[in-house]
Amino acid sequence: MSTATFADVVVDSTSKNQTIGSCTIDGLKFEISENKGKQLPDTQNKLSVINLAGNVATDKNYVKFTTTGDAKVTVSFFHGTAGRHAKIITATDSTGQTGTEATTNDKAIKTTEFSLTGADTYYLGGDNGIYITKIVVEM
Fold first, then answer.
1. Is the domain covering 3-138 a CATH 2.60.120 domain?
2. Which terminus of the chain is more exposed, N or C, with fewer CB under 10 A?
3. Exposure pattern of 49-79 as b/e (b: 16+ CB <10 Å)?
4. Torsion angle of alpha carbons 35, 40, 41, 42, nearest 10°?
5. pLDDT score at 17
């Protein structure tokens, strides 16, 4: 059985690091969902997100997790600026994988999938900052 360990969420290592929780998951599927089925934020309805400003790196702007085998990661995200993507890197591959779905000016939630091969520690973030609403890891 594969496992995924969510080590931490680091928003910015240059000022105030924000580490949000830690857990180890044994099984086939784990999900972090912050939007609880709500729509995008407006003046009446707020949406909980993980705000990752700037480019993902191994020292800032990431959600870090470790797998013991292959995994499929699904990420839902948005931003008010068009052309931003979700991205996953490792300590040995800073180029990593960039998701196929890009943000749009209308703040529509986009969903992209990553196929991860092999056990490794992964850093999930954006290519220029994104708001993450949901992460699903399936092994």
1. yes
2. N
3. bbebeebbebebbbbbbebeeebebbbbbbb
4. -150
5. 41
